[in-house]
């Protein structure tokens, strides 16, 4: 008769419990990391659009002063491709004094560029004060 060895039921339950505890602690962290990455990607996308709009202004072809422009136009980022998946809305507005904009990430978080820095916005829209 052959003697086979294996794990006992208690050992298997302990391993399953440990795996469950690890999963319960790691999955929320991974989801939060994805949200943070989407927000950072959206901010970067707006920054590229602002840089493109400023470059157009310096070269003598500013974007329209009277209306806000989508970030995915050729004058702001050199391409008419659709927004990346991390961005749901992005607008750039240019005045004689500077370029302003806002972006909304796929998480629903909005950021504004107020002419000098990126700030978290309570609602999606251009900054209230644009000189």
From TrEMBL:
Protein location: Cell outer membrane; Periplasm
UniProtKB keywords: Cell outer membrane, Membrane, Methylation, Periplasm, Transmembrane, Transmembrane helix
Superkingdom of this protein's organism: Bacteria
Topology in the lipid bilayer: Single-pass membrane protein
Entry GO terms, CC: cell outer membrane; periplasmic space
Pfam families assigned to the protein according to its UniProt record, in alphabetical order: N_methyl, PilA4
Ranges that cross the membrane: 12-31
Residue ranges occupied by any Pilin A4 domain in the UniProt entry: 38-119
Protein name in UniProt: Pili assembly chaperone
